[in-house]
Amino acid sequence: MISCCKFFVLLASFVFCSGMVQNGSVDRIIAVVNGDIILYSELQESLKAVEKLAPDVKTDDPERKARLEQEILKQMIREKLTEQEVKRLKVTVTKREVDEAVEGIKRDHNFTDTQLEYVMKESGKTIEQFREGVRKELERNRMLERVLKSKVVITDQQVDAFMKGGPAGGSPSTEKVRLGIIFLPVAMDGNDRGEVEKKAADIRDRLREGVDFGRLAKQYSRGPAAESGGDIGLVAVEDLAPNVQKVVRALKKNEYSDPIKGQGGYYIFKVFDIEKQKVSMSDADARERARRQLFQQELNRIYEEWVQDLEARSYIKITL
User: Fold this and answer.
1) pLDDT per residue over 65-105, tens digit each?
2) What domains are there in the chain, each with its CATH number?
3) pTM above 0.85, yes or no
4) What's the CA gap between 3 and 109, in Å, rounded?
C-alpha cells in the first residue's frame, strides 16, 4: 500500500523519454542492463526533471553535473532491473487497484482533485504520469512480497514511536495552510518569459495597492482553481515542493509572496489561513496512516537490499 504521496518525487518514478536525436546530435547508449539499453537522451530528460523538482540543484559546474548524472543513471539502472523482474514474474496491477491507491493518497493527505493537480504540476508531472508512477510502485511492492515470500509486519510499538517523533522519524503535529495561487504560464520555448515576468510583477504591485487577490486570480491566473479566486483549500505544508515550502512558511495569514519562478511559469502565493493540528496518539485514522507509512519505509529498505543483490547478479555495462 502506498501511504505517502512524496514517493512521486523520487528518482525511481521519473518518466523517461527516449529518442535518437538530441540537440541536433546523434544519441548514444550509456548503459546496457541485461540486454536492455539506456540512452543519453533519457538521462538528460531525467536530469531536467531533477532540476525542475529541485531548483537549488546547480548543474553549471561540470564536476557537480557529472556526479549528478552518475547518481541518476544508477537509479535508472535500478528502475530497469525492477521492470525486468516485474515482467519476468508476470506481476500485474489492475486499473481498479491504481484507482484505489490514488484515492488512498488523496484521503491520507485530504487532497481534492484540484490540490492533487497542483502538487503534480509542481513536481513536473501530469496526472497520467502520476498514475503510472503509482502503478509501478504497486508492481514493485507486489513483486517484492512474491520474491521474499513473507509479509512486512508493523507493530503498535513502532507506530507509537513514529507518532511521538522518535527514531522512526514521525511528527506529532502537522501544519496546513489555506493556499491561494496565481499562476502565469511561460511558453514552452520560453520566448515570452520576460513579458510574463513583467505581468507577474504588475500583479504584485496591484496587490500592494489593495486589489483583491481572488479578483486578480480570476482575471489572470491559468492555474488550479482560478475560477474560484485561486483558492485551492487546505494543504499540508510538507506536501509542497521544497522551494514552495520555503516561501509559504515565511508568509503569515493574509500575506502574499513576490512572484516566484517555478515549474512552467511564475507563481504568486497567498496564505488565507493557517491551521496547526496536534495528532492524537489514539486517533485511529492517524495511526493507520502512520502504519502505512512505516510499511512503505520497510519495503523501501527491503528493496534496497534486494536490488543490490540483483545488481551483483546482472550484466550491467556503463559507458557514460
Assistant:
1) 888 899 999 999 999 999 999 999 999 999 999 999 998 88
2) 5-153+289-318 (1.10.4030.10), 173-278 (3.10.50.40)
3) no
4) 9
